[in-house]
Write a structure and sequence with these properties.
Elements (H helix, E strand, L loop, with lengths): L8 E6 L2 E2 L6 H11 L9 E3 L5 E3 L17 E6 L2 E2 L11 H17 L4 E4 L14 H7 L2
Parallel strand pairs: 1-5, 1-7, 2-6, 3-5
Antiparallel strand pairs: 3-4
């Protein structure tokens, strides 16, 4: 395990899967390990469609979810994020939103200096997690 050096960011992602797909953290782990030859799933946490939170990489381990910033970030992946034609879509369930809010609150308590951002913050050609994280955070106030 390569430890993170610090935690400056909590990065929200989506799995880029359709709402009707039965995708779990184990599926994503297999994609990352088998298809990408990574040592483990890239994210630290996965929130499945039913709201179940699955731990990915060890919380203190360096992730593999945002090039150039894995050593300073925690990655959260929401399952979903594309429509039937493969286009970006905010199609997350009500329970996913609730669980995301709670998980982010807990992580902010643990890492109070960390900024909560979407993957697009570091990779502007991406729309991931396919909603505007800044607007979502404002809506929680």
């Amino acid at each position: 395990m390569i430890p993170r050096t610090e935690t400056n960011y909590i990065v929200i992602h989506c799995s880029a899967t359709r709402a009707d797909q039965e995708i779990t953290a184990d599926h994503i782990r297999r994609w990352h390990v088998d298809d990408n030859s990574w040592s483990d799933i890239g994210y630290h946490w996965v929130i499945e469609r039913d709201g179940k939170v699955q731990r990915g990489r060890h919380p203190q381990a360096q992730g593999a979810h945002v090039r150039g910033h894995n050593n300073e970030s925690i990655g959260i992946c929401l399952v979903g994020g594309i429509d039937q034609h493969g286009h970006p879509e905010d199609n997350f369930t009500a329970v996913q939103w609730l669980v995301l809010e709670v998980l982010v609150q807990v992580l902010r308590l643990r890492y109070p200096q960390a900024e909560v951002v979407g993957h697009y913050h570091f990779t502007p050609d991406k729309t991931c997690p396919n909603f505007v994280v800044e607007h979502w955070l404002e809506s929680l106030l």
